[in-house]
Design goal:
single chain; four-stranded antiparallel β-sheet; about 40% helix; globular; binds 2-acetamido-2-deoxy-beta-D-glucopyranose; binds zinc ion
Length: about 425
């Protein structure tokens, strides 16, 4: 028996290794470089090369704090390095062979999955159907506090679902709503476990010290917005970021848009490319994508009570707020306050190799953008609307699964802290004394 089992195990491992090898061949010749950005000017040079040389900014960098990490295709590599040298920007090789880097990460994921049969999906990189099964199970097992909602189909027909978690079936308007979603960007795999783990902690594993989070706050959690892109990044292209819509009137070869440029706020203005094949193509109109429309619909339906909206991304250790054009909302100080509390709460248990969370306006801390979910939340009136960038530990989008539990735990601390402090703001807004 033992031998048979081992044989099957080995067989599956080599099968995964083989299929992984062919899958990642599309990145053959790609290299990844560390770039020592000294100032804003250096960052802007990199930002321009995203458009002109189609480089992929894995990490934007922050002068004096962390280097930028940039992936480039072989045909653009010489020009990319020349422009860095011409501008006196130091750089070094970070990943020599992206294909074998991704193969190794795939192998690690398949080993992890093989060793954790029947594992809970928030300790893993679950596929769409596993996430869907988890949401359905939680809803049917805890009907007194959980309602599952199907927003509708993705472009390819997958149901995009979310959970509403409440002790009062969302009827008590003295409670604020905390709305979070994950996976607008397909390749940012570690974001879905964080959303699923939050469900777990609120429903299956509510600890006495967190009782207030469920008693005083209603929750909306959508773990997998861009389900099509996510599945595509599992099966086909690991570094796929966009949705998977096809619009022959726009382009016959390139699919999808950047979901986080597709919202109706300063749409198609800053930090975008009009090339329909670009990773920052915003779509020909706002909400061209059904999936971003579903997020919009939740924001609109509950706008009076959503006190905090959290759009979870990976990676870089940032808490970011509006607006992507560098202008600040009127409550910028409060936004900074709550964001700093979130970041500091996470930092308490961060790993030594992770950066401290940086908190600030997304255009000042990172780069200019338009049409983002974070900006849209702020624009329609959510008091506290954030982008959260989880840690990458140098692995960028391929965070090894052994780190998932760590990221879940530490991020939950930040979510809990931000929920509590935003509740105080909500009560002040409603003139409810504590
Ligand atoms: C919650 O309220 C909705 C109406 O908004 C209703 O359809 C549903 O049956 C209620 N669920 C429970 C558990 O009371
Ligand atoms: C699609 O976009 C690519 C890249 O910009 C371009 O080369 C190609 O001509 C476009 N095709 C169509 C049919 O518009
Ligand atoms: C975008 O917002 C503008 C201004 O609020 C509105 O007129 C327009 O209809 C919206 N477009 C879409 C596609 O939602
Ligand atoms: Zn992202």
């Amino acid at each position: 028996m033992m031998d048979v089992h081992n044989f099957i195990y080995v067989f599956f491992l080599s099968f995964f290794a083989l299929s992984a090898a062919s899958k990642n061949d599309v990145y053959s010749g790609y290299t990844v470089h560390g770039v020592e950005v000294k100032d804003r000017g250096d960052q802007e040079i990199l930002q321009e090369m995203v458009i002109s040389l189609d480089v992929d900014l894995w990490q934007y960098g922050f002068p004096g704090v962390r280097d930028a990490i940039v992936m480039v295709a072989s045909e653009n590599k010489d020009e990319f390095l020349k422009q860095l040298d011409d501008n006196g920007i130091s750089h070094y090789l970070h990943i020599e062979d992206v294909t074998s880097f991704l193969n190794e990460q795939d192998l690690e994921v398949s080993r992890w999955r093989a060793s954790k049969r029947n594992a809970v999906p928030f300790e893993d990189y679950p596929r769409y159907h596993e996430i869907d099964a988890y949401l359905e199970r939680i809803a049917s097992q805890y009907p007194e506090i959980v309602t599952i909602v199907n927003s509708g189909p993705s472009f390819e027909g997958r149901s995009i679902k979310y959970l509403k978690i409440s002790t009062t079936n969302f009827t008590d308007t003295s409670k604020p709503i905390y709305f979070m979603n994950a996976m607008l960007h397909a390749r940012e795999w570690v974001t879905a476990p964080v959303a699923l783990y939050s469900i777990h902690r609120l429903v299956e594993d509510l600890r006495s010290q967190d009782r207030d989070l469920l008693d005083n706050i209603d929750w909306i959690i959508m773990p997998l917005v861009n389900a099509d892109g996510y599945e595509y990044s599992h099966i086909d292209r690991r570094l796929w970021r966009r949705t998977r819509s096809f619009n022959p009137a726009v382009n016959l070869t390139c699919y999808g848009v950047d979901a986080n440029r597709n919202f109706n706020v300063s749409h198609n203005t800053i930090g975008i490319s009009s090339d329909p094949c670009s990773d920052v193509y915003p779509g020909h109109i706002p909400f061209s994508e059904r999936e971003t429309g579903y997020v919009r619909d939740i924001l609109h339906e509950y706008i009076d009570r959503i006190q905090l909206y959290l759009d979870i991304h990976s990676h870089g250790n940032y808490v970011l707020y509006a607006y992507g054009d560098r202008s600040l909302p009127p409550n910028a100080l409060d936004l900074h306050h709550v964001g700093a509390i979130m970041g500091a709460a996470i930092d308490v248990m961060k790993l030594p190799q992770a950066g401290f969370y940086l908190v600030g306006n997304s255009a000042l801390v990172l780069y200019g953008s338009s049409g983002s979910a974070q900006d849209y939340g702020q624009h329609v009136g959510v008091p506290f609307s954030y982008t959260l960038e989880l840690p990458g530990y140098g692995y960028a989008f391929s965070v090894p699964p052994r780190f998932i539990a760590q990221i879940n735990e530490e991020t939950w601390l930040g979510i809990a802290a931000s929920a509590r402090v935003s509740l105080q703001y909500y009560r002040a807004r409603l003139n409810i004394s504590n």
